[in-house]
Amino acid sequence: MANLKEIKRKIGSVKNTQKTTNAMKLVSSAKLKRTEELAKRSRVYAAKLTELINEIAQKMQKNNAEGIDNVYFKENRNPKKVDIVFITADKGLCGGFNAQTIKRVNKLISEYKAQDTKVCLRAIGRKGIDYFRFNGIELNNEIVGLSAAPDYKTASEFISEVADSYVNGETDKIILVHNGYVSMISQEIREDQVLPVDSSKLQLNAVSTSELEVEPDDDDTLLDALVKRYVEYTMYYSLIDSLAAEHSARMQAMDAATKNAKEMVKTLTVKYNKARQEAITTELIEIISGMESMK
Amino acid sequence: MKLLKLEIVTPDGVIFDAEVKQVTLPGSEGEFGVLPEHATLVSLLDTGVIVIDQADNSEVAVAINSGYVKVDEEKTTCIVDGAVAISGEGSDLALALEQAKALLKSTEASNTAIASAVSRIERIGKSF
Predict the structure, then answer these.
(1) pLDDT band of A43, cuts 50, 70, 90
(2) Mean pLDDT score of chain A, rounded to an integer?
(3) Is B41–A215 a contact, with Cβ atoms under 8 angstroms apart?
(4) What are the residue ranges spanned by the domains of chain A?
(5) What pLDDT, on the 0 to 100 scale, is given for residue B128?
(6) Nearest Cβ partner for A48 among B44, B72, B79
(7) How would DSSP label each residue in A283-295?
(8) H helices within chain A, ranges in order?
(9) Three-class DSSP category at B94
(10) B19: containing domain
(11) Domain total for chain B?
(12) Is A217 exposed, middle or buried (0-12, 13-18, 19+ CB in 10 A)?
C-alpha cells in the first residue's frame, strides 16, 4: 500500500511541474513576440546606418587608392590582444542557450591562445559571468541585468569603453559573440567582428549617382562619429537579438519539459493502476484461500 | 509641385515617412533647408528641431538630440538617436512638449543650443 501512496504523490508533483513549465512557456512566447517586434523596428535603423557608412567609406576609398586610411578600418594582421565581448542570459532554464555561447567563447580563447594572442573577456549576463568565475578565468568587465532588459544608453556606455581601448591601441580587435535569433524554433551562434570595421563586408561596388558632399568637410570627423554609432548600435542590436533568442530557446525548452512531464504522468498512471490491481489481486487471493481453509 | 521623400529613423523604429515640400534640419555647421532635388549631401545633425513643411501646407516639428542626414535627389533620410514629434492637441501636445524638452536637455550640447531649441519648440507648441 505504501507503494501506491508513493506513486500518487509522484504523479501530483509531476503534474505541478508540468503546470509551471507550461506557464513559463506561455510567458516566454509573449515576451518573444514583444522582443521580435523591437528587433524588427531596430533592424531598419541598422540597415540605414550601414548604408550610410558604406557610402562614405566608398567615397574615401575613391579618394585614396591605398584603401581607407582610418583607425577604425585598419586591419591588424597580427593582433596582440583581442577583446571578446559575449552575451549570455541572466537566467537559466533555456536549454543549451548559454552553454553554446560559452562553448564558442572557450573555442575562441584557445584559438587565440595558440596564436600567442592575449585575450580579454568582457561578459554580459549572469550565466556567463558565473561560469568563468567558477572556472577561475578572469573577466575584465562584467555587467548583469543588461541582457534581460537591453537599454541603449547602458549598452553604448559598455561598448564605448571597449572601443576606447581599441582607439588607444590597447587592443587590436573586438569580437562580439552572442546566440542570435533565427526563428521560433532555432537559434544560431553569431560571431561579429566589431572593430576594425570589416571593409571586405562593406559593399563598395555600389555606384553612386553624384558627387557626395560632406558636412563637416572633414571626412574623418564624420566617419569617426558614424563608426562610433555603428559600434554602439551593433552592441544594442545584438542584445535585442540575444534576448529574442533567449526567449525562443526557453520556449522550446519549456515546451519539451511540458511534453516530458505529460509522458511521465502517463507512465506513472500506468504504474499506479498496475500496483492497485496487484494489491486487489493479492487481497482476493488472501480472502479465497482463507475461505478454502475454513471448509 | 515636386515633393521630396523624407524618412526619420530612430533606434526604436521609423517615426516619420512621407512626401513633404521642404524640411529644415539642424546641421552641425548650421541650420539648412532641403527642397526636392537637392544635391547629394551627408551631414552630422546637432541637437535641435527638424521642421517639416508637409504636402498639405501644415507644419510638423520633431525635436532630436543628434544624428546624421543623407540627402540625395529623391530621398532624405535622417538617422537620429532620439526624436520626439511635437503634434496633437491639448494634453497630448503638452506631453509631447515635455518629452521633447527632456530629450533636448539630456544631451551634451551647449546650453545656448539647448535653450534656443527649447524656445523654438515652445513657440511651435503655441502656434497649434
Answers:
(1) confident
(2) 86
(3) yes
(4) 2-25+253-294, 28-252
(5) 62
(6) B79
(7) HHHHHHHHHHHH-
(8) 2-63, 97-114, 126-134, 152-167, 219-294
(9) helix
(10) 1-128
(11) 1
(12) exposed
| CATH superfamily to which A2-25+253-294 belongs | ATP synthase, gamma subunit, helix hairpin domain (1.10.287.80)
Q: CB distance from B89 to chain A under 8 Å?
A: no
Distances (CA, A) of A98 to A25, A135, B105: 18, 15, 39
- Could you tell me the maximum CA-CA distance found in chain B, to the nearest angstrom? 40
Q: What is the CATH number of the domain that holds B86?
A: 2.60.15.10
Q: Which residue has the higher pLDDT, B86 or A256?
A: A256
Please give the grid coordinates belonging to residue B88. 496633437
- Determine the topology of domain A28-252 in CATH: Pyruvate Kinase; Chain: A, domain 1 (3.40.1380)
Candidate from A41, A213, A236 with C-beta closest to B41: A213
- ∠B87-B88-B89 over CA atoms, to 5°? 130
Pull the grid cell for residue A142.
562584467
Instruction: Tell me the CA end-to-end span of chain B in Å, nearest whole number.
Output: 25
* Grid cell in block for residue A128: 556567463
Strand partners, B30: B27
Residues 28 through 57 of chain A touching chain B, CB cutoff 8 Å: 38, 41-42, 44-45, 48-49, 51-52, 55-56
Kindly tell me the sign of the dihedral angle through the C-alpha atoms of B88, B89, B95, B97: positive
Choose the weakest-confidence range: A9-18, A123-132, A214-223, B40-49: A214-223
Q: Hey, which residues 169-208 in chain A have their CB within 8 Å of chain B? A: 208
Q: What is the rounded distance in angstroms from the CA atom of residue B69 to the CA atom of residue A27?
A: 40
The verdict on whether omega for the bond into residue A79 sits within 30 degrees of 0, i.e. cis, is no
Using a 10 angstrom Cβ sphere, with 0-12 exposed, 13-18 middle and 19 or more buried, the burial of residue A249 is buried
Q: How many CA atoms lie within 13 A of A162 on its CB side?
A: 31
